[in-house]
């Protein structure tokens, strides 16, 4: 039986998608008998891109485009072998980046 913890970091552009993914991971871990800490929302990273509408004329006319990266953190404490197996076989959506540390 593995000891310690598994730390899962999730990143996504869509907050609904990342919340659904967190719920799937938490349900799977609880069903297999592991303790859960989280999901903890980490600060959202906002990137704003400013683009001139016209390169030569109307220099004051600009468009602003924004991009938000949502992040969540889940700790699984004292995972069992069944927890690890079920997390490996869990199907996650394509728009979520998952980083796992043991």
TrEMBL record:
<dbReference type="InterPro" id="IPR027486">
    <property type="entry name" value="Ribosomal_uS10_dom"/>
</dbReference>
<comment type="function">
    <text>Involved in the binding of tRNA to the ribosomes.</text>
</comment>
<keyword id="KW-0687">Ribonucleoprotein</keyword>
<feature type="domain" description="Small ribosomal subunit protein uS10">
    <location>
        <begin position="7"/>
        <end position="101"/>
    </location>
</feature>
<comment type="subunit">
    <text>Part of the 30S ribosomal subunit.</text>
</comment>
<dbReference type="GO" id="GO:0006412">
    <property type="term" value="P:translation"/>
</dbReference>
<dbReference type="Pfam" id="PF00338">
    <property type="entry name" value="Ribosomal_S10"/>
</dbReference>
<dbReference type="InterPro" id="IPR018268">
    <property type="entry name" value="Ribosomal_uS10_CS"/>
</dbReference>
<dbReference type="InterPro" id="IPR001848">
    <property type="entry name" value="Ribosomal_uS10"/>
</dbReference>
<dbReference type="InterPro" id="IPR036838">
    <property type="entry name" value="Ribosomal_uS10_dom_sf"/>
</dbReference>
<dbReference type="GO" id="GO:0003735">
    <property type="term" value="F:structural constituent of ribosome"/>
</dbReference>
<protein>
    <recommendedName>
        <fullName>Small ribosomal subunit protein uS10</fullName>
    </recommendedName>
</protein>
<comment type="similarity">
    <text>Belongs to the universal ribosomal protein uS10 family.</text>
</comment>
<dbReference type="GO" id="GO:0005840">
    <property type="term" value="C:ribosome"/>
</dbReference>
<dbReference type="GO" id="GO:1990904">
    <property type="term" value="C:ribonucleoprotein complex"/>
</dbReference>
<keyword id="KW-0689">Ribosomal protein</keyword>
<dbReference type="GO" id="GO:0000049">
    <property type="term" value="F:tRNA binding"/>
</dbReference>
């Amino acid at each position: 039986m593995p000891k310690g913890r598994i730390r899962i970091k999730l990143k996504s552009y869509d907050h609904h998608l990342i919340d659904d993914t967190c719920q799937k991971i938490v349900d799977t871990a609880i069903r297999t008998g592991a303790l859960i800490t989280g999901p903890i929302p980490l600060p959202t990273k906002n990137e704003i891109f400013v683009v001139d509408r016209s390169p030569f004329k109307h220099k004051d006319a600009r468009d602003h485009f924004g991009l938000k990266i949502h992040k969540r953190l889940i700790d699984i404490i004292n995972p069992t072998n069944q927890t690890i197996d079920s997390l490996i076989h869990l199907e996650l959506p394509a728009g979520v980046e998952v980083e796992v540390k043991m």
